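Open question from group meeting: does this chain pack into something compact, or does most of it stay loose? Before anyone orders reagents, we agreed to write out a predicted structure and look at it together. Recording both the input and the output here so the notebook holds the full record.
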Amino acid sequence: MSELAITYSSVLTGWVVIALMYIAQALVADLTAMRMKHTPGMPVESGHDDPLFRTTRAQANTNENLPLFVLVTGAAMLLGNSAGMTANCTWAFVAGRAIHMLAYYADLRPIRSVGFVIGFVAMTVLAVDLAIDVFG
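Structure tokens returned:
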């Protein structure tokens, strides 16, 4: 195993957990669509009272946040940012996304927002820490 993978093994584990969470969200959304007899390829146009809407939006929101997560954590690893700081922010992001997902499924809007904010703040903190390291 490379030195980078050893140093950032916790971060890489976080990547795997997020990937598994995304796969789980896809399965939940697909199973919900099948249970509700939704026509594949047709948009889901209902609102938050509809479980299909919530499951597809939870997955879409995770998808929208993945590029920032991969970009910031990947840059942190490649530029040699503190492994501890990078891991802490990674796991805060993972926890925030898990809270967001579960709260979206349960239609707990304030908790869903808290989960989103946890993940967003974690990546913002990591990006700022990285910028300070890079630009002094």
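Observations to bring back to the group:
The domain at 3-135 is CATH 1.20.120.550 (Four Helix Bundle (Hemerythrin (Met), subunit A)).
The chain has a mean pLDDT of 95.
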